[in-house]
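Q: Given only this backbone (361 positions), what sequence would you predict?
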């Protein structure tokens, strides 16, 4: 099918989203984003140039971008919203130098520091996750990768949590070798989170103690072990728009099942302290771009949504279909009731696993 000309190729070359200083923003050609959505729904992926046109679009285009993205989201997930509960099972004490992270060795942020929690603490958190309507319990440790004691603790607790609370388990344990991935699969872990965090070209600017390829290899080990891959990133770390597009396409190429998109919370005491905040409009355009590039993947509005989207959080759910309910690793989320009210006010439904959602063919 034909697609409306991109903003960049319009005869009015000032219609390409963000305008040079002094020029007022204008709308993109009518129907452009809707035509892109139609093409995606017909099975034809968008190009990197078209993905970039979403990020470069004027803020005036945000309603049209979200409306087009909602068509894709609704086709695959209807109005369902899946909830995740995040548990920081080990905090601080990390030898890596990820510049965004308050738990890294280069951070001066005051964060709790403790080794992996005892069984009763992890079970109590699982109870809270089930009580809050979460389908997935995310077990997270701060580390380069799990040591043997931590592996055994996970192997022991996961079967008990699944048996008692019927929760899916997502483990976020750092870098994994193939044997560790197989052990996690054997004990009942459903998926592993390991974020790419940024593009390959930008990665060395935010971390030097491991590489982008190290992260990709962990995801390959997870996939080869038969678990689902949960991987996304952080936007607003000084990367270019091309970097954000590159990350979205890398995630599509890897075939990850779940994509959390964080918006940088520039925590005082970290190397990224003072980084200019991403606007709510740019965050919404980025979320929509991830939906266009990964149309049938679970897309989660993750850390930073309360800080950056604020009153526009409901708009993000027109393209994303999952949320964390409760707090993050070292920062607070909004009250769970506020999330429930937001979902209800949208007319959306909290659901179980994606496989249980009726897909509108």
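A: Predicted residues:
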């Amino acid at each position: 099918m034909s697609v409306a000309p991109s903003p960049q190729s319009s005869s009015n070359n000032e219609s390409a989203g963000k305008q040079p200083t002094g020029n007022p923003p204008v709308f993109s050609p009518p129907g452009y984003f809707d035509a892109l959505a139609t093409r995606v729904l017909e099975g034809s992926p968008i190009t990197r140039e078209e993905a970039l046109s979403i990020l470069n679009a004027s803020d005036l285009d945000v309603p049209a971008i979200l409306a087009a993205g909602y068509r894709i989201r609704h086709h695959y997930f209807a109005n369902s919203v899946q909830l995740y509960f995040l548990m920081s099972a080990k905090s601080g004490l990390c030898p890596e130098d990820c510049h965004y992270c308050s738990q890294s060795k280069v951070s001066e942020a005051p964060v709790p520091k403790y080794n992996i929690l005892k069984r009763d603490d992890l079970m109590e958190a699982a109870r809270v996750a089930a009580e809050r309507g979460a389908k997935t319990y995310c077990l997270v440790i701060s580390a380069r990768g799990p040591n043997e004691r931590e592996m055994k603790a996970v192997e022991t607790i996961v079967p008990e949590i699944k048996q008692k609370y019927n929760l899916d388990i997502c483990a976020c344990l750092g870098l994994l070798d193939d044997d560790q991935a197989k052990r996690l699969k054997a004990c009942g872990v459903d998926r592993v989170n390991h974020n790419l965090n940024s593009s390959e070209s930008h990665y060395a600017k935010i971390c030097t103690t491991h590489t982008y390829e190290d992260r990709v290899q962990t995801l390959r080990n997870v996939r080869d072990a038969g678990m689902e891959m949960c991987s996304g990133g952080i936007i607003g770390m000084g990367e270019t728009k091309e970097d954000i597009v590159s990350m979205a396409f890398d995630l599509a190429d890897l075939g990850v099942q779940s994509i959390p998109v964080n918006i940088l919370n520039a925590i005082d005491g970290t190397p990224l302290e003072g980084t200019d905040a991403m606007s709510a409009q740019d965050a919404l355009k980025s979320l929509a771009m991830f939906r266009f590039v990964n149309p049938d993947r679970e897309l989660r509005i993750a850390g930073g949504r309360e800080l950056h989207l604020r009153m526009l959080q409901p708009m993000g759910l027109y393209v994303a279909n999952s949320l964390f309910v409760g707090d993050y690793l070292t920062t607070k989320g909004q009250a769970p009731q506020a999330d429930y009210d937001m979902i209800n006010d949208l007319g959306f439904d909290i659901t179980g696993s994606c496989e249980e959602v009726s897909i509108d063919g």
